[in-house]
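Why does residue order matter? Because the sequence determines the fold. Keep that principle in mind as you read this record.
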Amino acid sequence: MDRTLCGTRCRTVRPVAHHRGQLPRETAGTIRYALENIGRILVFVDFDSGPSLMVLPDDICVEAPEAAVRA
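Structure:
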């Protein structure tokens, strides 16, 4: 289990189907952890809209930290 991205914000880059429906594109969430399963990487994400899902890395885009504001 890889927790290096724990707490990192992300968003979906395409609609993601799941057991309760579909997450639209641009749905934001927070990464909890990543793991390898049967030769592929899966990322567990707590989405702001409610569901917590395992998604493929290609389904999400990690948001860059906000740039520091210069005075």
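The chain has one domain: 9-62.
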